[in-house]
From TrEMBL:
One of its GO terms (molecular function) is RNA binding. InterPro entries: Csn12-like (IPR045114). This is PAM protein. Signal peptide: none annotated.
Length: 499
């Protein structure tokens, strides 16, 4: 009896006995698989009846050894499963692990076939096999994502207008998302009870899809997946900690990329809090996004309690600590210099743009506060009702000084993302007044702009003091913001059962 027939006979027995675990361990695809798999591959390659394009060869052998039972009460191989096994045999016949791009295409086809087999009413026994193959596909895709030479070769081989114009990571994500949808549509249990059937793997596959979408920088494609989770998935709290934490990590990154910093902070904070302290590298990865997310909300990390005290923050302190110091003082020059020094590191993690542009209001706020502290002269009469004000021309003078200083450092040529306004553009009074007006509108400065007097007048200085009244804490201002009736910042779409 040939090795191919022996292999198929064993698979047939496992299907009839509904041995999903045995089927998963039997259907291996990695290059580290046992010698018998490579012997199987050799037989498939050397015997002409199994050759690609040979009429009826491989298909006939599979159909003959995986017959479908006429008895409805007997579990037997179904048509989708036989198609999957044909693709599995073709995979071992054609795969060359020295050619990773071709191996990826074969494996992607195999997982696609597995998704079809899983969608059958008897497909539940394919769940663990689907997990194993999807994880292998995701791992190979991530390996390729670190090989730009191979990615360029794949792009050149793609025909214009073909579906293959999509990146390898995007194609892998779409394939695994098919399995995710099948699991999500399982009606074995509802969303408020312990998951059963294929629904136990909903977040497992969602995490793989999100991982690949972030790898290929197609984050917006995750919107549909998160919408489906929001409407159909069981409560996240019903799943194991590893799946919860991973999902919240990616969900937090998704909302961070969409500039919903409050939502992102809640997701990343929950993921960080649920990760045991012994997983230092995992907690470091979460802090990499949680710290800048909180910075965007005006919540700077404590050097004593976080950056210097926790091992997971050891490599992040030198990055974010100096940036926070520059933000506190409104030091544009130091802030932009620090960003330039860490530009490649921040760019790889998708943090450069939000830290470059979204934190400008906080820099201007700190600069305005600092100018006020240097120039304000309180009235000699304690009973005076004269309003405390900031002369906007003083703020303009400080901004012009910083602009000249940055231009000198850059040998006269600033990049568009540098400078007080836009590169070497001069700082006008109108621009500074507009910045102050925007800060007032955002609640980062409390008062009003007296246009004719060219001043910013502080409201409530008598009760709290001009500095506290005029420059409320940023996080407090964020929490007190009012939104349209149909928007609730505390609601987190994608987090089913968020506390």
């Amino acid at each position: 009896m040939s090795l191919v027939v022996q292999f198929l006979t064993q698979i047939n027995q496992q299907v009839r006995n509904q041995q999903g675990d045995a089927l998963c361990s039997w259907l291996q695809v990695s290059p580290e698989s046992g010698a018998q798999y490579h012997q199987l591959a050799s037989e498939l390659r050397t015997q002409t009846q199994y050759a690609s394009g040979s009429p009826g060869g491989l298909d006939d052998v599979v159909d003959r050894n995986l017959p479908e039972s006429d008895d409805d009460d007997v579990v037997s191989p179904w048509s989708g499963f036989r198609s999957f096994i044909k693709d599995y045999m073709a995979f071992w016949r054609d795969v060359d692990y020295d050619d990773l791009v071709a191996a990826h295409d074969l494996l992607n086809t195999l997982v696609n076939s597995c998704a079809t087999a899983l969608s059958h009413p008897q497909g539940g026994m394919m769940l663990k096999t689907s997990m194993s193959l999807s994880e292998t596909l995701a791992g190979l895709t991530m390996t390729l994502s670190r090989r730009p030479d191979l990615l360029r070769r794949a792009e050149r081989a793609a025909a214009p207008g073909d579906d293959s114009q999509k990146s390898l990571a995007e194609k892998s994500a779409e394939t695994i998302q098919r399995i995710f949808k099948t699991c999500l549509q399982d009606r074995t249990t509802d969303r408020y009870t312990t998951p059963g059937g294929t629904k136990v793997a909903v977040y497992k596959f969602a995490n793989l899809v999100l991982k690949l979408l972030f790898a290929c920088r197609r984050i917006q494609l995750a919107t549909m997946l998160l919408t489906q989770i929001e409407s159909q998935a069981p409560l996240l709290s019903l799943y194991p900690a590893s799946q919860r934490v991973t999902y919240l990590y990616y969900l937090g990154r998704y909302w961070l990329s969409n500039n919903h910093f409050v939502r992102a902070s809640r997701c990343l904070s929950a993921a960080y809090a649920q990760t045991p302290a012994r997983f230092v590298s995992h907690r470091t990865r979460m802090l990499t996004y949680l710290i800048p997310c909180n910075m965007l909300l005006g919540r700077f990390p404590s050097d004593r309690h976080l950056l210097s005290a926790r091992p997971e923050a050891a490599t992040l302190g030198p990055v974010f600590g100096p940036l926070c110091s520059a933000l506190r003082t409104g030091d544009f020059a130091s802030y932009q210099r620090l960003l330039a020094e860490r530009e490649s590191w921040l760019l790889r993690r998708g943090l450069l743009l939000p830290l470059t542009y979204k934190l400008r209001p906080l820099l201007w706020r700190s600069l305005a506060r600092r100018v006020f502290l240097l120039t304000y002269e309180p009235p000699l009469d304690p009973s005076s009702r004269k309003a405390a004000t900031l002369d906007i021309t003083h703020l303009q003078a400080a901004a012009e000084y910083l602009q000249r200083r940055m231009a000198e450092t850059a040998a006269g040529k600033l990049r568009p993302n540098e400078g007080m306004v836009w590169g070497n553009q001069s700082v006008s009074f109108d621009h500074v007044e507009m910045v102050v007006t925007e800060l007032v509108q955002q609640g980062l400065m409390h008062g009003f702009v007296a246009h004719n007097q060219r001043r910013f007048a502080i409201i409530g200085a008598k009760a709290k003091g001009p500095v506290i009244a005029g420059w409320p804490p940023v996080w407090q201002a964020v929490q007190e913001r009012r939104y349209d009736d149909d928007f609730d910042p505390s609601d987190i779409p994608g987090w089913v059962g968020a506390p």
